[in-house]
Amino acid sequence: MIKNRKKELNEPLQIMFDNEVSFIVEQICKSQKFVRTKLQDVAMVSLRDVERCLNIFVWLANKYFADTSNIRQCLVISMGICYYYRLKPKEREEYKKEMTTQKINFLEVLERERDLFCNALVYPPGNKYITILYFVFTKLNKYVTFSIK
């Protein structure tokens, strides 16, 4: 499933993808296992989650990160949307520790990208930044059914 997604990436990214495919597989498998264990329901994690994560990954890589060599950044953001933000705060801490490796600091990348996104928004008067953050990254996550291609 993951290796087939290579064809959807822009040509320069395909080489980077080849170099990172084992890391990508490992991280998505760890995410699936972690969420399944924490939510204690096999039905809570499915291949649809993997598909959603890969859709977001490919879309980000092609649209926003095509000029960078950091394909892992796309992976972190897509895993954040598909796995991290569906967890409770305590579980998020555990997930962050599980996903952080010598190759990537999961939370650092996710927070940097979240802040870039939120700083680009125009907030209505009277709304607090944290309220908007909460809504964007928790409530909307339930409705992320990207069919981005």
Protein architecture, described:
- This is Cyclin N-terminal domain-containing protein.
- GO terms for molecular function: ATP hydrolysis activity; ubiquitin-protein transferase activity.
- It comes from Reticulomyxa filosa.
- InterPro entries: RNF213.
- Helix content is 63%, strand content 0%.
- The protein is globular and about 45 Å long.
- α1 crosses α4, α2 (47-63) crosses α3 and α3 (71-82) crosses α5 (106-119).
- The protein has six helices and no strands.
- The chain has one domain.
- The two termini are 16 Å apart.
- Mean pLDDT is 80; it is low at 142-149.
- By secondary structure, the protein is mainly alpha-helical.
Q: Which bin fits the share of residues in helices?
A: 55-70%
Distance between the termini: 16 Å
Oligomer: single chain
What count of structural domains? 1
Q: Bin the strand percentage.
A: under 5%
Structural class: mainly alpha
Rounded mean pLDDT score: 80
Total count of helical runs of at least 4 residues: 6
Total beta strand runs: 0
**Biggest sheet details:** none
Radius of gyration (CA) equals 15 Å
So what's the overall shape? globular
What is the H/E string?
HHHHHH
Give the low-confidence spans.
142-149
